[in-house]
Amino acid sequence: MNPTPKPHKLPLFQGNRLITLSSTAVSKTAFTLVGAMLLWSAEAGVIADVGQSQSLPELTGEQSEQVESNGAPEDQVPVIIPAEILEFNVPDPNAPPPPLGYQDLFLQNNQPTAQFNRYRLGSGDTLQIQVERFPDLSFAYTIDIQGNIVVPLLGQIRVGGKTVEEVQETIRAGLDRFVVDPKVSVVVSGFRPAEVTITGEVQRPGFYTLQPGSTINEALLAAGGTTNDADLRKVVVRRRALFDDSILEQQLDLFTPLQNATDQPNLILQDGDALIVLQLESQDVTDYDRTLASRSSFAQAQINVRVLNYPGERIGNVTLPNGSNFVDAFTAIAPNLDDANVRKIALIRFDPERGKAVTQILDGKKALLGDISQNVPLQNDDVIVVGRNLVAKITNLVDRITRPFTDVLNFQRFFEDAADQLGGGD
């Protein structure tokens, strides 16, 4: 019969030792505190006869320094502040709500902050995961259509919609169950294309697939460039927030850097972004250089102007660089300055807000001789009518239109039909 095993004494001995040490430490600490209090009381002169009331004397400079070096008594005693003087950070219920987009938070000196530019992972992104000291756990993976990747030892994890930092911490926490102090780094080695919506004052609004890392300039060029009615000071980017899935709206100024020859906002468009170019308001026209804006890389490269000339019966097209003026189009048709018809030329433009054709009568000879009042900037789809009789007929037809043009195509078709019906001639 096996003898009964004796209990293991080492843990008990250690426990008793710990208890003994703890009791000794407490005793020493208590004696030290009592001695310190008696010494402080003696030096401060606070020991008095029993029953004699007295107040604490003021400490000398030397004693004050000693108290401060040892910790002031009031620093060791909790101070209770009356409730009536507490100030809580409670927002004013009557204060207006903050503007949509957190403009102050995500824009500094017309440059988006790193927080606004944080990248949200999605299907098609390729991740490079490195685990220090464990090459077998390092790998590269392209996020699948469901937004998942497969990690050694962890299996499938969802990364779609997360940031690189969040994925890195998720993998580190998971591997921590299998390896000691895993050091994980995650980088995006391949970005997915960005599906963005471009609307507003651009030539071809719609949905566009942009290359990874595309800027606002590249997006605007993909949409055909901005129109002459665009206000480059008011370009809006809408993006889904990382922290609460709300919609962030950020307005950028592309015109002022263009005017001052400074850096444009360094904003990289992300998948799901919406880009809106606002229209130039009438009250903002005076301090906005449309010619500079139209000649910039943001605007469409060329414009098409239709010319209805008196010698023919068909309307012709003149293609000009964006930012061209009336003289540029007028010289393209090689006018005869001695002809009286050049003194009365109609420039007809479609007004999309009212759905009407707006006519302006210009003197071609004065424009060619340098009269800037007659050399107006041209816009895409403008119509130039040359010939006094032809101008009279066309303007008469325009004035008789009671129903508005539904769009610019309807406006163009009207002049094509008018050229066929009226013909030319003086």
UniProtKB/TrEMBL annotation:
Gene3D superfamilies: Outer membrane lipoprotein wza domain like, wza like domain. It holds the Pfam family Poly_export. InterPro entries: Poly_export (IPR049712), Poly_export_N (IPR003715), Soluble_ligand-bd (IPR019554). The keyword Transferase does not apply. Keywords: Signal. Residues 117-188 form the Polysaccharide export protein N-terminal domain. The keyword Nucleotide-binding does not apply. It comes from the Bacteria. Residues 196-240 form the Soluble ligand binding domain. One of its GO terms (molecular function) is polysaccharide transmembrane transporter activity. This is Polysaccharide export protein. It comes from Symploca sp. SIO1C4.
